[in-house]
């Protein structure tokens, strides 16, 4: 079932066409990645889907409704983690999570959410005393406490330490396994690679590539095989490395070392894609 369906989405700010004809379909339980350089149109697109920004053109359906006209019951089915941190600095973590839970008809247990987000030790701490990464975890807690069917995460792990990022990734995976649909905007390519089942790359308000993290931009079309032997270091790019590998290992050359097969990294592919789009 399509949770998000977008056809021909357009948005202009004055003379600047920020979103220039986007088509998207996101199905239930998917983690869908949105990548693109600064100014690509990601936030504009996501804010239109969240119902926070009007569009100029195109058809948009989110959880079966038009976000431009949908009401409070629709909003309660959506969770949002925005880029900017919340500002209830004088409240404790528990107070703010409980408070926000009160806006939803069927929220998750606030203490369980605090625990899930790795904030149990800080439950009674005032927000102003938290570190940047801890504040960001509170944002995530507030985004999921309403038990949303659809969760928008805009650069969720900015400021997280590596361990907190891994904890967050497992939280996202478990939410997705429970059926929550997740739209993830991130500048961390490893994060998108680890979490997203599908992704699009936006540049200049258009989709320049679409696919899975493993195949996008022709990642699997070419591999680089490198090795070392008595003649020095070798590096060959091939479409299918199988025959070359078989040939190399059949040599039984004791001096053959450092044999490696590498696919292009998501970062290489991404930089090419946005470079071509400029
Ligand atoms: N309220 C606004 N008024 C005028 N121009 C805007 C407004 N919001 C965004 N823009 C412009 O629209 C373009 C797309 O912005 P948007 O915030 O959607 O990009 P983004 O992909 O989310 O970027 P980032 O990665 O920096 O968050 C940019 O050129 C931006 O300057």
TrEMBL record:
<dbReference type="GO" id="GO:0005886">
    <property type="term" value="C:plasma membrane"/>
</dbReference>
<dbReference type="GO" id="GO:0046677">
    <property type="term" value="P:response to antibiotic"/>
</dbReference>
<protein>
    <submittedName>
        <fullName>ABC transporter</fullName>
    </submittedName>
</protein>
<dbReference type="GO" id="GO:0005524">
    <property type="term" value="F:ATP binding"/>
</dbReference>
<keyword id="KW-0547">Nucleotide-binding</keyword>
<dbReference type="GO" id="GO:0016887">
    <property type="term" value="F:ATP hydrolysis activity"/>
</dbReference>
<keyword id="KW-0472">Membrane</keyword>
<keyword id="KW-0046">Antibiotic resistance</keyword>
<keyword id="KW-0067">ATP-binding</keyword>
<dbReference type="InterPro" id="IPR003439">
    <property type="entry name" value="ABC_transporter-like_ATP-bd"/>
</dbReference>
<dbReference type="InterPro" id="IPR017871">
    <property type="entry name" value="ABC_transporter-like_CS"/>
</dbReference>
<dbReference type="InterPro" id="IPR003593">
    <property type="entry name" value="AAA+_ATPase"/>
</dbReference>
<dbReference type="Pfam" id="PF00005">
    <property type="entry name" value="ABC_tran"/>
</dbReference>
<keyword id="KW-1278">Translocase</keyword>
<feature type="domain" description="ABC transporter">
    <location>
        <begin position="4"/>
        <end position="229"/>
    </location>
</feature>
<dbReference type="InterPro" id="IPR050763">
    <property type="entry name" value="ABC_transporter_ATP-binding"/>
</dbReference>
<keyword id="KW-1003">Cell membrane</keyword>
<keyword id="KW-0813">Transport</keyword>
<dbReference type="InterPro" id="IPR027417">
    <property type="entry name" value="P-loop_NTPase"/>
</dbReference>
């Amino acid at each position: 079932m399509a949770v998000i369906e977008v056809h021909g989405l357009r948005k202009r700010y004055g003379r600047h066409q920020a979103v220039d004809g986007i088509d998207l379909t996101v199905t239930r339980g998917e983690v869908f990645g949105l990548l693109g350089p600064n100014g690509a149109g990601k936030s504009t697109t996501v804010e239109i889907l969240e119902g926070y920004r009007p569009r100029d053109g195109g058809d948009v359906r989110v959880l079966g409704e038009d976000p431009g006209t949908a009401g409070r019951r629709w909003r309660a089915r959506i969770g949002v983690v925005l880029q900017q941190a919340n500002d209830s600095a004088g409240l404790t973590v528990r107070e703010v999570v409980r408070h926000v839970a009160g806006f939803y008809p069927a929220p998750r247990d606030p203490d369980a959410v605090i625990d899930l987000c790795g904030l149990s030790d800080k439950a009674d701490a005032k927000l102003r005393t938290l570190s940047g990464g801890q504040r960001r975890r509170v944002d995530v807690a507030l985004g999921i406490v309403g038990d949303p069917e659809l969760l928008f995460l805009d650069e969720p792990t900015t400021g997280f330490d590596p361990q907190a990022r891994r904890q967050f990734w497992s939280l996202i995976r478990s939410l997705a396994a429970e059926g929550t649909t997740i739209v993830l905007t991130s500048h961390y390519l490893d994060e998108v690679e680890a979490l997203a089942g599908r992704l699009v790359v936006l540049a200049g308000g258009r989709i320049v590539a679409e696919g899975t993290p493993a195949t996008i931009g022709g990642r699997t079309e070419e591999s680089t095989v490198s090795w070392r032997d008595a003649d020095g270091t070798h590096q060959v790019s091939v479409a299918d490395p199988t025959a070359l590998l078989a040939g190399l290992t059949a040599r039984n050359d004791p001096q053959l070392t450092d044999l490696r097969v590498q696919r292009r990294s998501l970062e290489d592919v991404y930089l090419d894609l946005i470079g071509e789009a400029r």
